[in-house]
Amino acid sequence: MKKALKSVDLSLISQLCFSVLTIVMGILIMSFKAFGLLDLVLYTSTLFYVYAFLSLIAYFIKRKDGDYEMLFLSLIHVIVATLLYAFKDTEMNAMLGAAVLIYSILFTCNRLYKIYQLKNIESYMWIVKTMSTILVAFLSIVTSTNLYAEEIVQTMMLGYYFITLGIILTGESIIEIFITEDKFRKILKKVLANESKLDELEEIKEEPVKRKPGRPKKIN
């Protein structure tokens, strides 16, 4: 277990805690109606401000030279929260859809910059973050297009969005904590080897069966 935990420092723990808090944020949004909080835009913007503060704390805990991912994420939460609060009187359907779209674009740009940094230092996490970013982008497109519906659907969609986002980020953090560079490369080699074997089998199946030449039949 000690080998698998590969120097679990405070930065990785804070990253995992932040990912779990994303799931909590989704659960809170889904619980708004149960607590009598009917102004979804107002309370979502407040939650974004709280989330921005937590992102800032996580940045100072896991701060490393040249790593501004959490700081930019905190700024993104402030921008989205401010837009929601400033345009709270706008039609709720359009406002929530636009907020999720803006959040997703800024979030993806922040992630792409982090992926670029990881790739430059040849860290295996750039592959993991690329795959998770693609999942988040797909999730964002589905959510933003479905927010133009009834109020109860909006609450559920926003809640599911942040719960799913939190699950993706939590899985990413767990991989970073428990999977070492060598172990990841071994797993990747096995996957690629299995794929090449499958391709070879497919090629063998697709090859036409050659018939052996036989003697011509005699015509009486």
What layout of secondary structure does this protein have?
Blueprint: H1 10-30, H2 40-61, H3 69-86, H4 92-120, H5 125-146, H6 151-178, H7 181-206
Helix pairs in contact: 1-2, 1-6, 2-3, 3-4, 4-5, 5-6
What does this structure look like?
This protein is an all-alpha fold and about 220 residues long. About 75% of the residues lie in helices and about 0% in strands. It has seven helices and no strands. The chain has helices at about 10-30, 40-60, 70-85, 90-120, 125-145, 150-180, 180-205. The longest helix is centred in the middle third of the chain and has 29 residues, at about 90-120. The N and C termini lie far apart (about 80 Å).
Brief description of this entry?
The protein has 220 residues and is an all-alpha fold.
Model regions low in confidence, pLDDT < 50 over at least 5 residues: 1-7
Helix content: over 70%
Distance between the termini: 82 Å
What is the average per-residue confidence, as pLDDT, rounded to a whole number? 79
Principal-axes shape call? globular
Instruction: Compute the number of strand runs.
Output: 0
The SSE string, one letter per element, is HHHHHHH
* Total helical segments: 7
Largest sheet data:
none
β-strand amount? under 5%
Give me the secondary-structure category: mainly alpha
As a whole number of angstroms, the C-alpha radius of gyration is 25 Å
